[in-house]
């Protein structure tokens, strides 16, 4: 690979570290600053950091690769994600910003759940923190693995060295600057992803005579556009659209709403975030579509369809631009890793160490513990990532559904129903997660297949979790009077912004 490509990547890494240093000097004097940026994050940074941490490497690799396998059916997933993200901004963002502040300035999702029910160290805090720490550690290991494989395939470096470079840079700026560093680097990474997902499909499209030439070449191996309506069953459409349900329960995304500067800023963040997401999703799908057509028309082979973005960046652009485009993939990977590292560390620090081990720890000391937590989670995730064939990573691919079913209904009910009880909330987490795991792994069908082959596991998980919350809360009786007063106080504060 040309040396100028390495120079582009080096500049990118240096920029990420400089942002981490800037954040270290401006927002890490107390735990609120380290975990939530002091709730002073601008709407612009909120929007792009939420998008970048959400999309990860699958935006530039997984979604384009899906076009090779699923064809235009991939558009249903993209549509489901758009609807889910918009609903998250409308239903969750403003309420969560107010409710977490009213709930004694809750800094993490488990902290909010506990304080929402007037139980500082109740079972819900332990259960939700455990789910976050375990699954995000595994989720992080998958991201680190992606970084290792990218360096291996694109630069010819060893997998282990690529893994080390990826995790070292991410840990450095996350450890230094906490939430502000993660959000600011995500903002820059979101901008890089935006430009890349406009540039790559456009330049690749210019290799064809016109749109008809493109479509005829693509349809040599995938079904025509009309197939997404005519050849797809109802359950398949529901499964694809149901990806949007996952947004309500993703801790690394909704924590952005807790940190935004004010409730009125959420409208600005929504407009920016949804515009960014619409353009990037279209760009990702178009990269896949043009990729299918390009492979069919030109004498070019590709072993892994998910590397079509890498292929385009190497054969269609100058080495300097190639470095920028490869940095876009790294940006997508690293933005998600850093968010998951910080959320895991935050739960380890606030919901385990301070809540149960040392309640009187000083602000300066708890920030140090938070930084240690980042390193610990990163080390464990890296050790898991060393085993490239680890079956643990198969579980991580279903984490979106697991978090969505375990936390999604609980977040929504906590913000909209004052009658939910602590036992109802615990039941929702446990049954939602259990249903997803059963749906994925239980070989109950005639051929030994699991139920996930019929419908995406988040659908039954979300339904079972919701029903559990409603039924258990109903038979459990009314919540404490203080809990209901807190709910009403948050409602009244929200009305000031309507």
TrEMBL record:
Gene Ontology CC terms: plasma membrane
Top-level taxon of origin: Bacteria
Residue ranges of coiled coil: none
Localization per Swiss-Prot or TrEMBL: Cell inner membrane; Cell membrane
Transmembrane portions of the chain: 6-24, 75-92, 122-141, 161-180, 187-208, 228-248, 276-295, 315-337, 369-386, 398-417, 424-442, 454-475
Family affiliation: Belongs to the sodium:solute symporter (SSF) (TC 2.A.21) family.
Name by which UniProt lists this protein: Sodium/proline symporter
Organism: Neptunicella marina
